Amino acid sequence: MSRDKNLPLDQILVGDCIDLMNRLPERSVDLVFADPPYNLQLGGDLLRPNNSRVDGVDDAWDRFDDFASYDKFTREWLSAARRILKDDGALWVIGSYHNIFRVGSILQDLGYWMLNDVIWRKTNPMPNFRGRRFTNAHETLIWCARSKEQKRYTFNYEAMKALNEDQQMRSDWLLPLCTGSERLKDSAGKKVHPTQKPEALLYRVLLASTNPGEVVLDPFFGSGTTGAVARALGRRYIGLERDLAYAEAAQNRIAAVKPMTEADIVALRAKRTEPRVPFGTLVERGLLKPGEVLFDERRRWSARIRADGTLIAPLGRDLEGGRDGDGSQDGGVVGSIHSVGAAVQGAQACNGWTFWHVTRDGMSLPIDIFRQQIRAELAGE
Amino acid sequence: MSRDKNLPLDQILVGDCIDLMNRLPERSVDLVFADPPYNLQLGGDLLRPNNSRVDGVDDAWDRFDDFASYDKFTREWLSAARRILKDDGALWVIGSYHNIFRVGSILQDLGYWMLNDVIWRKTNPMPNFRGRRFTNAHETLIWCARSKEQKRYTFNYEAMKALNEDQQMRSDWLLPLCTGSERLKDSAGKKVHPTQKPEALLYRVLLASTNPGEVVLDPFFGSGTTGAVARALGRRYIGLERDLAYAEAAQNRIAAVKPMTEADIVALRAKRTEPRVPFGTLVERGLLKPGEVLFDERRRWSARIRADGTLIAPLGRDLEGGRDGDGSQDGGVVGSIHSVGAAVQGAQACNGWTFWHVTRDGMSLPIDIFRQQIRAELAGE
DNA sequence: TTGAGGGGTGAATCCGACG
DNA sequence: GCGTCGGATTCACCCCTCA
């Protein structure tokens, strides 16, 4: 859980994010969430330091200069972030069409491996006042692993599915802007930060791609939404922010956050982390008996249970299965519930737990219900 | 209207699109729509949960050695496209996270000026079978002008607004994949092209950013969706396609398209925003009465009209609706015709005007007919 | 005719623990 | 690090069959 590295956990460090990241230990952070500045230089006239206007020398070159400096900045902070990410770490960036294409390209050039681009669809975007374009109603996030080669990354599939009415979470997220009481205001009622992100956005990001106790670093901490949500969700944060006023506002904001209880946070446990139950256990415990015959749901194939927890299936199709006598070895496929299920179907793989059924009281039941029964017993102990 | 330049109008040229573009006169084309290879980097096979194989895009034209070679290709075709665009021309590109960030960056480097990035949200995307990522449920389009300095570009604001319930068209478009009878199949029933785009997508693109008679060039013509929609909408097309089989299929497809009448096209183009009619107006005018019950077309859901022009629907399904007494607040969903329609269906959005029906003389009529009636009155005044 | 149900399929960077 | 193998994993829509 990364308490080893002397990380400045649950703190905001004030300074240049590239410098600060370069001083942190490498491979120490689970996630980076970044909301970098958009390339604001692209707007109006380009002025020299003495305020004279750069005149039509070569617009393309000027543009290249603008983009080049933004690209250089982007390469630097993304490189620094990659150094401090753990091998199984990941990174999120958010941006708009002004900068996200530069960021995405550079990400890929640096060896990050894209997992998804995610669209934040705004319920309440600013309209296009002049009627010259489509209402710019979304922003783009990129979710990427530290590298293509890395073994694993965190994705809490079940939690995301639960958040989305028990259907897979899609790559387009409909969320309102940060307004109302969530929006930080100063004593004069002026908004503290121009681009404060909604907590719901970070909630989804952190819930999807971190586990409780893990460390998320935000190099452009701003008003501290990342920290506030991390604290609420039982994650640790490191905030980097150049502007002291922002950092102080964020600090106060986070201090007021009440963390969720551990029970609430762990509520959704992934299926794939449930304890493994060998099929043989079902036989050992007498839930299934050696010699019993299993069928697929539509009774196209059958297989007989052997005492060691393997199955044996006849070679061709077999509509009735049994009646071979008791221990006869009639030259069939032998193996695990999975491999025999795959073999009879001629498939590459098969989940034997859901494929094979057994008859009880005239009903056809998947053998997985016996596994669930054993898991329930294990959980109760 | 560009009949000056000896362009190969309404034709498909077979060959390398960069060569072909370089042979066309410069500044001769109004719009470029491009659906370049995405540079997917697929590993082995992907199996569905039922063990069937996903028919992925493994065509030679989508394989590049590395990002550098993809970038070089992208720079070349985008440069060639820019040369043949008129000074007030524009370009659309579509892509996915695999390539769109490279394309977007290079666009900007070459001097194109982004107007919007547009998200095509798919109603029916392929699920993520392994549960390892978010469902990749969208693709990204970039709409850009030839240069930042250009005076004008075409944007049919009113037509877009009319297409979107009289509200500004947003940058996220919800459209289904190209399936069913629209999808080109060969005599064996196999899809002709692996990535055929839906006509509705091109319809919106061309309606938004071209005028009748203008020329749209598609350098990756494929199955010819751009040409088919251009012909239907009274635009001219130039298709460039390397693969002769694709070109022939596209040719046949386009020949079968029946162009809309000029009157229809002009109507679309000139369509003024129709006056907004609040639902409450129908109640005010007595066309509908408070307490009346609305149904969806198939009478699966119902809602009662309240005096203020909102609806109230019972929480669960309700086949008969009424008989609650007059002003009772029996704990249902309350809101606009649109929000209640969405809520009862569990949908994110709903056009209440076409969703809700009312019974008149034993017939079920959409409430939109009353809006039309009021609009007719307003137009007559 | 209509409805229920089964099968097919779409631009996809789609596994990981354990020995 | 690599091979083995257990076993987890899908949504909307269209078409067809059959009752």
Automatic annotation (TrEMBL), chains A, B:
The answer to whether keyword Magnesium applies is no
Identify the residues that the record assigns to the DNA methylase N-4/N-6 domain, covering every copy.
29-251
* Gene Ontology MF, one: site-specific DNA-methyltransferase (adenine-specific) activity
The record's Gene Ontology cellular component field reads: cytoplasm
Q: Name one Pfam family in it.
A: N6_N4_Mtase
Q: Which PANTHER family match?
A: RNA METHYLASE-RELATED, TRNA (GUANINE(10)-N2)-METHYLTRANSFERASE HOMOLOG
Name of the protein: Methyltransferase
